[in-house]
């Protein structure tokens, strides 16, 4: 038997309403904040991620689904959404669009070759936003407020927003030196990845999952102490405006994010809920000021975040929050014989074109089984069609909730249901 690829999942018909509920909510909130959807391809040139995400990241080093197409081009299934959005921004010259800044969102499957564990899939759906073309602490605050709004709108409470500033390029150069001095003498005590990171991207040692409990991580110099005046002022303005609109946060001086292109504001949302499992990060994001130029684009900056729906669902489950059951159909037509079944199939055809959701029993079961089927399908109303109904055209329209029924003509069915 052929099985589903490792690390992927089927969203079964009994569960898909949960996804639709979340997706609809996300589209609506994006609209609230005036972000427009952007859809980029499922695969891109490998080069985009190597340059845009960075060669020292786990994503590029270990996790990409890269393949050659028949024209010998190296392509990669997208592991994240920012680089593709920025590629599209540059290619479509969005810096010249009349509407500025560019505020976009995406909701797309992403692909990463990862070790399978709870909350970690090889294909997962990310909802993410990017605000490109403006560098202002207030837009950072907008992005953070939207993010928290999303989680809170589902009723989640056990959340923590962690923020940090990783400063601008200048601040980081000094900080990186301090980190190298701090870690170099004992680097052999760290994992092999960190032994490479000390030369390629020392800040990422702070982000290492294997070495997170090492004493030197706790005592490492803090980025905050290396921020220049500008970076400090930027961070202060983000914080004071979060305070002003009542968004709670904690500062995590070790929060650096895994990608190379971040500057200034970096953030993560974690779930505190018991039973969430080992991975508690719900969302990550930050400001990127060098990315566009790194991809040969204009001198513009951006900020964004990405969350996965899979982990949002886990958080809902951990907090015992249930997604409403989907609505059933408006009408189920039971039929007593062959002729009635045929007629029922014609009636549902007409009703459906009038916007009424309805169904019949194609398995041609007995009446009792049909009623059960109507119940399972959540029918608001049922009618039973037999010889008499077919000759007079009158049927008993039964409301399943109250058990009440009234006589109506088949031709009136659609108007009655519209009134419901
Ligand atoms: P992690 O530290 O968990 O590996 P990450 O730093 O790789 O996360 P990002 O690249 O920032 O994650 O992606 C943003 C969000 O996407 C994460 O916070 C998480 O909610 C989600 N995410 C990342 N990888 C996966 C995955 N393999 N399966 C499901 N969701 C994921
Ligand atoms: Mg990861």
TrEMBL record:
Stretches assigned to the Aminoacyl-transfer RNA synthetases class-II family profile domain: 20-324
InterPro entries recorded: aa-tRNA-synth_II, aa-tRNA-synth_II/BPL/LPL, Anticodon-bd, Anticodon-bd_dom_sf, His-tRNA-ligase, HisRS-like_core, HisRS/HisZ, HisRS_anticodon
Binding sites annotated in the UniProt record for L-histidine: 80-82, 112, 126, 130, 257, 261-262
Localization per Swiss-Prot or TrEMBL: Cytoplasm
Major location category of this protein: cytoplasm
Catalytic activity: tRNA(His) + L-histidine + ATP = L-histidyl-tRNA(His) + AMP + diphosphate + H(+)
Gene Ontology terms: biological process: histidyl-tRNA aminoacylation
A GO CC term assigned to this protein in UniProt: cytoplasm
Quaternary structure and partners: Homodimer.
Similarity comment: family membership: Belongs to the class-II aminoacyl-tRNA synthetase family.
Protein name: Histidine--tRNA ligase
Source organism per UniProt: Salinicoccus sediminis
Taxonomic lineage from the root: Bacteria, Bacillati, Bacillota, Bacilli, Bacillales
